[in-house]
């Protein structure tokens, strides 16, 4: 936990920079489309913000969806590693459409109140157990797709989150074994209709969280071996260029391992399942006065080492 002075300094530093992440040879798996290709394909992003290597062209036997790719485990990952090591043609970023790195997962599990500083923002105690809710998989859209304001809500809010992608099936997983079940990490935007989350639907959170387009993901599934420490990453959200959330994942109350152990007591986790791990402070609903997204806004959610997703509000 950071001391207040250090947290203020960190926030100032984060606000002063745009995090010009450097390209790398890390494993950055993507789903994409291109005009000359039929249907979705699997690829490798050639560094954060780079072009795309077509994995299905490198090995036509590979599946074309991330869930199927993950289901095949080490055999498909080894092909991707070979492709990463080879000098393969790169499709320019301008010629491809990035899809969410995972589409149609079995489940999207979400965690509420999982940042110490977000709890302080609400003046509520830090939870003693993870607070679990969900979004429907139909809410998932790509990293640069539009967020559609639903006519039924007037209070749509932003939440940048670190998302964990499960790599293999498991139940009753021990925290000490949990990282073996993780494929990697990506950036998520847990778009939230506060009126439906906090006042309607018996105050059950589901409907307020799961309108269509309320789960932008991407740009890539960065494999766990490519992330130095998922619990020490700068995390930031900007609305129309203004920093509204700025923290680090070391503020998470329950880390990835604890969350997987907790959730897997109740449900079986499958390859491609997504766990959204909570949001830092700075959301619109707790501002004075509250601020909500409106037509024409642009939201950028960014996490160090993982990348940035940019979604226009329409």
Percentage of residues in strands: 25-35%
CATH topology of the largest domain: Fumarylacetoacetate hydrolase, domain 2
- Average residue-wise pLDDT: 91
Tell me about the biggest sheet?
A: 11 strands, mixed
CA-CA gap between termini: 38 Å
- Rg is 19 Å
Number of helices: 8
Named CATH architecture of the largest domain: Alpha-Beta Complex
Quaternary state of the chains: single chain
What does this 3D model show about the protein?
- By secondary structure, the chain is α+β, with helices and mostly antiparallel strands.
- The N and C termini lie far apart (38 Å).
- The protein has helices at residues 4-16, 55-58, 66-71, 74-85, 116-122, 194-198, 206-209, 256-263; strands at 28-33, 41-45, 52-54, 97-99, 108-112, 131-135, 140-141, 156-157, 160-166, 182-189, 192-193, 215-223, 234-239, 242-248, 274-276, 298-303, 307-312.
- Mean pLDDT is 91; it is low at 1-24.
- It folds into 2 domains: 28-98, no CATH class; 108-313, Fumarylacetoacetate hydrolase, domain 2.
- GO terms for molecular function: hydrolase activity; metal ion binding; oxaloacetate tautomerase activity.
- InterPro entries: FAH, Fumarylacetoacetase-like_C, Fumarylacetoacetase_C_sf.
- One of its GO terms (biological process) is oxaloacetate metabolic process.
- Its cofactor is Mn(2+).
């Amino acid at each position: 936990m950071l001391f207040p002075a250090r947290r203020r300094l960190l926030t100032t530093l984060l606000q002063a920079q745009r995090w010009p992440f450097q390209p790398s040879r890390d494993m950055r798996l993507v789903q994409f489309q291109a005009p000359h290709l039929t249907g979705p394909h699997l690829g490798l992003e050639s560094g954060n913000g780079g072009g795309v290597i077509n994995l299905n062209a490198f090995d036509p036997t590979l599946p074309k969806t991330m869930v199927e790719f993950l289901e095949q485990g080490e055999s498909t990952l080894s092909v991707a590693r070979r492709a990463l090591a080879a000098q393969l043609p790169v499709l320019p970023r301008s010629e491809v459409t990035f899809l969410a790195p995972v589409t149609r997962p079995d489940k999207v599990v979400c965690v509420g109140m999982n940042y110490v500083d977000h709890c302080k923002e609400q003046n509520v105690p830090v939870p003693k157990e993870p607070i679990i809710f969900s979004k429907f998989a139909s809410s998932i859209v790509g990293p640069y797709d539009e967020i559609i304001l639903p006519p039924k809500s007037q209070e749509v809010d932003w939440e940048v989150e670190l998302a964990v992608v499960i790599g293999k099936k498991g139940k009753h997983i021990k925290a000490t074994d949990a990282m073996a079940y993780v494929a990697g990490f990506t950036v998520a935007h847990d778009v939230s209709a506060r009126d439906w989350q906090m006042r309607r639907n018996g105050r059950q959170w589901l409907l307020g969280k799961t309108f269509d387009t309320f789960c932008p993901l991407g740009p890539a599934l960065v494999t766990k071996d490519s992330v130095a420490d998922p619990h020490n990453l700068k995390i930031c959200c900007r609305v129309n260029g203004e920093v509204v959330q700025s923290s680090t994942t070391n503020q998470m109350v329950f880390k990835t391992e604890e969350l997987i152990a907790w959730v897997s007591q109740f449900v079986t986790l499958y390859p491609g399942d997504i766990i959204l791990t909570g949001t830092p402070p700075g959301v619109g609903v707790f501002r004075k006065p509250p601020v909500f997204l409106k037509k024409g806004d642009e939201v950028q959610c960014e996490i160090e080492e993982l990348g940035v997703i940019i979604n226009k509000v329409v």
